[in-house]
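Researcher: I'm comparing several assemblies side by side, and this is the next one on my list. It has 712 residues spread over two chains. Same procedure as the others: predict the full complex and return the structure.
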Amino acid sequence: MSTMTMPAGSPAATGGEAFLSVRDLYVRFSTEDGIVKAVDGLSFDVQRGRTLGIVGESGSGKSVTNLTILGMHNPATTTIGGEIVLDGQELTGASERQLQQLRGNKMAMIFQDPMTSLSPYYTVGRQIAEPFRKHTGATKRAAHERAVEMLAKVGIPQPAQRVHDYPHQFSGGMRQRVVIAMALVCNPDLIIADEPTTALDVTVQAQILDLLLEMQREFGSAIVLITHDLGVVANTADDLLVMYAGRAVERGTVEEVLRAPQHPYTWGLLGSMPSLTTDVSLPLTPIPGTPPSLLDPPTGCPFHPRCRFTEHVSGARCRTERPELPDGRGAACHLTPSQKAELYAEDVAPALGEEAVEAAADAERAADAEAVEDQVPGSTDSEENEQ
Amino acid sequence: MLRFLIRRALGALVVLILISAITYGLFWAVPRDPAMLSCGRDCTASALKIIHHNLGTDEPIYLQYWHYMVGIFAGRHFPVGNCPAPCLGYSFDESTPVWPIITGRLPVTISLAIGGSVVFLIVGVGLGMIAAARRGKLIDKVATTLSMFMYSMQIYFLGPIALAILVYGLHLFNNPAYVPFTENPWGWFVGLLIPWAVLATIFVGAYTRMTRSLLIEQFQEEHVKMARAKGMSTPFVFFRYAWRGALSMIITQFGMDFSSLLGGAIITEYTFSLQGLGAFSVEATDKSDLPSIMGIMLFGAALIVIFNAAIDACYAVIDPRVRLN
């Protein structure tokens, strides 16, 4: 059983208890042009000490989901449905005051751009100390000491001096360390990192990701890592959720999804990612078309207008019927498990290099065995790709 | 910090010298010869020459400019009269140096500028803050509509209406008049209340709109969102983060507006018959009193430059990024 799975509606049936549980989340914005379905029926769980990577193109609803978890959407224009449960507490109906108690304390957010996520007007020490004083009631002096301690923890040299510096006196990578120190100052149980390395130099990216994981080991926090970079996810996350058009289209452990991806969209993401280990002559294959407008998402499977494999599904189901994402390992796609494995192995993997071909062949054999065994086409039970 | 201020002051000095040179140049580009004006109907070439000499306009222009600049610091002597430092020229129409006229008119203008500014800052910025905090709500729509209305108002239209209603209709006030603050503070206050309100009206519209849009822009800033994500309370985020970011722009705009008001609120002074610098500049222009016009222009320009330098010094206090560069 994959660690992030949990049958909808019956939390008691899970093995590990989820620290953050999102169930059937809907987020809709009313705009002048109509209603934007930014998030459409999303469910996922994150356990303490584990990292969930959420991957998808811009506009796929990743960031919206996380702002909604923090309750930082504009209530005047946003409608929320479904439930978000953090450590047993329901957040969708929580008051602003309750949410303020949780933000920065139990759940913390790391934003994308460290150049803009620190206020230029206050010293970093003060910005780190602020939430600590608010949430723990510490004295000014204690909060200051805590700020120095946190700066030391995130690897800023001479923290006792640098605590008095302003953000513009730090480099980009150092600023992101400061942001992490600020987010972690109250030992939050949940850290939401929204593309924390996108704005950084490649050499600094790895350092920051390492730091996040190190902090996670120390505090045992759950991390939700939003990114569009599968490379980041591969090295950092435990579980993976692929989002498209406000919906989750595939989930599983990172290992499962990257070795034997089941959704054509995930295939597309992998195909458009450059890799250092494959032959340089292998061309990148971008996903044709553009992400759909969330004002008027396509009927049926939202990916069907861009999908190369719709003819393998009988009838017009891709156009008419919305595929469900099974609990646990699986993908929201009408292709049967053996079709997925076969198409991936024959059509997609060769463009991804030898390693992918081998993994795909393994997965195909496993899927065939599975299909013969229980003769239930379309079943995407979570066991089928257990490795 | 000190180096920053010194550098800024030197910069201001250079700008002032440039402005004075250009103003002086424009002064003489005007197709009216001041000597001709005072020469009368039966003007002979020799009479004109004498007048030119008396005015000091028979010298080459660069020498005239040099004398003018020296005069500001050392004073000058004209054949028609003495002009002690700071000499901004000698008004032949008024038969007196320009500087005492300016200083004589200045209290009216300063009173008008300070009072009007207090009103439009409190009302305009306050309304903008409320509108931004309650964005999309009824009060925001009311404030936005009101500010649009006020922004499109004209003082010469609003002033007479205010007078007609408040003074001649309801008899709530006497006709606005300037009473020196040192003589009668209450009289000063009551006498200028209507001009302040009318002057402030057009600025209120602009400041409401500016404050509102600056704050809303700040709400979108990542560091303001971050402050929310840290769990800070809504007022804390509003004042410590969003307001702080909007402040420098508001101060910049205020510095510009205030210094130009000190140069004379021409229309307001004219509407309410207040004898300030603005009214003086209109009179001087009317009479082609070029030395007076030159003096007022230079004085106004100096105010703007000085206030700009002061604003920059304010930045250094507000924004640590400026302080350290």
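Model: For your comparison table: Residues 1-15, 378-387 of chain A have pLDDT under 50 and may be disordered.
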